[in-house]
Amino acid sequence: MSTDQSGKSFFPDPSEALRQVAQTPAAYGHYLADFQRVLLDMQAKLEILQQETQVHCRNTRVKGDKWGQARLRSYPVEKSLNDVLKNLQRVCAGLEKSAHKRHAHDEKVEETKKQRKANAELKARRNSPTLPPAPENPAGQGAQAPGNSYAAHPETIYDLGRRESA
C-alpha cells in the first residue's frame, strides 16, 4: 500500500488503486507483468538454489553409507524445491493467461456492443421497410414491358429460376 510521509494512504480506500487497475486492460496487464517479472526473477534464483542444494545433499555422506544412500536421502529436499518451482511456473503462466483473458474480455464487450447495434438497425429496417417507387409503364397499363423478357418468356431453362419447367 502506498503512503505519503504522514503515514496516510494516498487513496481514501486502500483498494481504490486496484479498482482503477482492474478497470483498464492495459493497466491490468502491466500490473500482472510486474508480478510476473518478480516471480521469474525468483524462479531463476530458486533454480540456482535447487542445483546447489542437489549437489550439496547428494555429496553429504555419512560414514558407512552404501552406494546411493546419500542420493536417496536428498530426494525429499529436491522434491520439495521442484514442487515449488513447478507451482511458480504455473503461477507465471496463470498471470499471463489472466492478462490475455482480460484484454479479450474488453474486445468481446466492444464486439457485442457493435453486434447489438447492427441487430437493432436491421430489426428497425425490417419493421419499417422502405418501398421503392413503382416504375411507370409507358406502353400501357396491362401490357408487359418489352425489356422484361424473363416475365414474358424465358429463352433457356436456366432463365426459369425457381419456376418449374413445363
Your description of this structure?
By secondary structure, this protein is mainly alpha-helical. The protein is 64% helix and 0% strand. It contains four helices and no strands. It has helices spanning 16-23, 25-59, 69-127, 149-152. Helix 1 (16-23) crosses helix 2 (25-59) and helix 2 (25-59) packs antiparallel against helix 3 (69-127). The longest helix has 59 residues, at 69-127. The protein is elongated and about 120 Å long. The mean pLDDT is 83.
Helix content: 55-70%
β-strand number: 0
Shape: elongated
Mean model confidence by pLDDT = 83
Largest sheet: none
The total of helices stands at: 4
Measured on Cα atoms, how large is the radius of gyration?
A: 37 Å
Distance between the termini: 86 Å
Strand proportion, as a percent range, falls in under 5%
Global structural class? mainly alpha
Q: Give the low-pLDDT segments.
A: none
Q: What's the helix-strand series?
A: HHHH
Note the topology.
Layout: H1 16-23, H2 25-59, H3 69-127, H4 149-152
Helix pairs in contact: 1-2, 2-3
Task: Write a brief caption for the model.
The chain has 166 residues and is an all-alpha fold.
Key attributes of the depicted protein:
single chain; 166 residues; mainly alpha; 4 helices; 64% helix; 0% strand
